[in-house]
């Protein structure tokens, strides 16, 4: 299988079996990109996730584009991007016409009540996985807690927090 096709199929699988949006997809992307295919190291993967958060657009699409580009340049980026969005595009097109008729259904509400905590678990597992590499010492732990506090309590924009953290990194590391 060509590298471009493999990138497409990998991100197609990620897009097809990931629920809950970008952050919930991070564990799936990590497993495929770092563990299964060894296309990136965990550190490279975390750097791509950080860049994907800072650039406009959904994190899953940005990260699939960056990973595809890193592996196979332009066509790798195209393959990764199309792969990750194709299944959700098709499903949302189909579901949109049916969901409006069933949105008040008890079964549909119950399904979503079950999916929401699972998505939270996926996001938490991504945070733990990334934290193992990102939190390298006490200073990085303090930065992480300051950012968490700044976003949750002070309602600072994540991009501002990342920019300030970069400046702090220049000073303390």
UniProtKB/TrEMBL annotation:
Transmembrane segments: 7-29, 74-99, 111-130, 142-172
Membrane topology: Multi-pass membrane protein
Recorded superkingdom: Bacteria
Molecular function terms, GO-annotated: chromate transmembrane transporter activity
Main location: membrane
Alphabetical list of InterPro entries matching this protein: CHR_Transporter, Chromate_transpt
A single Gene Ontology CC term: plasma membrane
Family the UniProt entry places it in: Belongs to the chromate ion transporter (CHR) (TC 2.A.51) family.
Protein name (Swiss-Prot/TrEMBL): Chromate transporter
Species, as recorded: Caminicella sporogenes DSM 14501
Taxonomic lineage from the root: Bacteria, Bacillati, Bacillota, Clostridia, Peptostreptococcales
